[in-house]
Specification:
- The chain has about 180 residues and is of the alpha/beta class.
- The protein has a single domain, classed as Maf protein, CATH 3.90.950.
- About 30% of the residues lie in helices and about 25% in strands.
- It is built from six helices and six strands.
- It has a six-stranded mixed beta sheet with strand order 2-1-3-4-5-6.
- The protein is globular and about 50 Å long.
- The structure holds inosine 5'-triphosphate (ITT).
- Inosine 5'-triphosphate binds next to strand 3 and helix 3.
């Protein structure tokens, strides 16, 4: 097995990456080094700043990932602020903002940034459209998983195994692209 470092503080993200990259012969190693999450307009900008910070401290190849939930009837909020919003008003607060909204559509986005010494950083973007529930449902996953049902389904991400979620999710898609990059067919 080859090893690849994933710079993340999030055990849920790490588990999803480990599941997705194992079949192509990669063991994912989590390193929670921390990096500044700048206030920026796009996930890619946040990821780019993160990469620059980590490159000063890590000499090997690594990847990191920035993600967010973009709610249509809230003009894309919480979006790039998803982490802050989750830690402050939480799921209950988001559902409260959505109380009078009939359009429940939302999209999860994920940007994986892959960095190798001496090479340009490569970005892989994944999206997963879906709808927000009225109440949290399910015990698995993390973050907004209990209130998000991917399009075409009837269960939240929190009601799925890591494997099931990763087959459908934004991060599953960005990791698919990383996997194809690491092990072209
Ligand atoms: P890092 O250390 O990798 O940055 P993080 O948890 O801080 O991990 P982000 O900065 O990417 O992650 O913040 C994204 C937030 O959006 C995160 O706190 C979750 O609440 C939410 N989120 C992202 N992906 C999600 C997913 O697949 N399911 C549920 N919530 C998700």
């Amino acid at each position: 097995m080859k090893q690849l470092v994933f710079i993340t503080s999030n055990k849920g993200k790490f588990a999803e990456a480990a599941v997705r990259l194992a079949p192509i012969g990669y063991t994912v190693v989590q390193q929670d080094l921390g990096y500044p999450e700048v206030q920026a307009d796009s996930l890619q900008e946040v990821a780019q700043f993160g990469v620059e910070s980590v490159q000063k401290r890590v000499q090997s190849a690594f990847f990191l990932e920035d993600s967010g939930l973009f709610v249509s009837s809230l003009a894309g909020f919480p979006g790039v602020y998803s982490k802050y919003v989750f830690l402050t008003i939480g799921l209950r607060g988001v559902l409260q903002l959505m109380k009078v909204k009939t359009d429940r559509t939302a999209v999860f986005r994920s940007v994986v940034a892959y960095s190798q010494p001496g090479e340009e950083t490569e970005f892989f973007v994944g999206e997963c459209p879906g709808t927000l529930t009225y109440e949290p449902q399910g015990m698995g996953g993390f973050g907004y998983d209990p209130i998000f049902i991917p399009k075409g389904g009837d269960r939240t991400f929190a009601d799925m195994t890591t494997q099931e979620k990763t087959r459908l999710s934004h991060r599953g898609k960005s990791l698919d692209m990383l996997a194809r990059r690491l092990a072209p067919a």
